[in-house]
Amino acid sequence: MTTPRLDHTFFENEVRPHFGSVLLSANLLRPEQLDHALEMQRGSGKRIGQVLIELGLLYEQDIARAIAIQHDLPYIDLEASSVDPRAAAKLHPDVGQSLEAIPVRFDAAGLVVAVSDPDRASKERLTAETQCNLSLCVGEPLVIMNAWRRLLRGQRA
C-alpha cells in the first residue's frame, strides 16, 4: 500500500518555509521524490537532507544551498573561498568542529562565520565564544571540517 501524496504547498507561506517546500520551489526535487524521502526518514532519526543524499537525489552542496535559502542567509563555497586564519583564530577549533562552524573573515559588521546549520543555539554559542558580532553564512559540513583540518595542519607545520 502506498501512502497518499502529501500537500507540500500547505507550508509555502510560512515565515521560515519548511525545508521540503524550499527544495520543491528550487526545483531540486519532485513532490513524489520528497514523499519517498520523508517516508524513508520516518523513524530513522536522520535529517531529511541526509536521507536525500543517501538516496542519491541531492548532493551536500544542494542541501547547504537550500538551508541558506530557508534561513535567508548567503551560501558560501569554502572550496572556492579562502578562510582568513586571523578570523578563524577567534573560535577554538574544538568548538568550531563540534558546531560545524568556522569563522571565515572580518567585515564591517563583525565576523563572518560559515555554519552547516544556522539554528539559534549555535549562533548564541558562537557569539559567546568569539565575543564578536556575527554574520552567518551556510556551507557544507564536510567542507567546513576540511577547512579546519587545513588550518590546523598549517599551524603544526
Walk me through what this model shows:
The chain has 157 residues and is mostly helical. The protein folds into 2 domains: 10-71, no CATH class; 85-156, GMP Synthetase, Chain A, domain 3 (2-Layer Sandwich), CATH 3.30.300.160. 48% of the residues lie in helices and 11% in strands. The protein has 8 helices and 3 strands. It has helices at 19-25, 31-41, 48-54, 60-71, 85-88, 93-99, 120-130, 141-156; strands at residues 101-107, 110-115, 134-138. It has a 3-stranded mixed β-sheet. Strand 2 (110-115), helix 7 and strand 3 (134-138) form a beta-alpha-beta unit. The longest helix has 16 residues, at 141-156. The N and C termini lie far apart (59 Å). The model has no long low-confidence stretch (mean pLDDT 89).
Rg (CA only)? 17 Å
Q: What's the CATH class label of the largest domain?
A: Alpha Beta
Give the total of domains.
2
**Which structural class fits the helix and strand makeup?**
mainly alpha
Largest sheet: 3 strands, mixed
Poorly predicted parts: none
Helix content: 40-55%
Main sheet: which strands, in order across?
1-2-3
Strand percentage lies at 5-15%
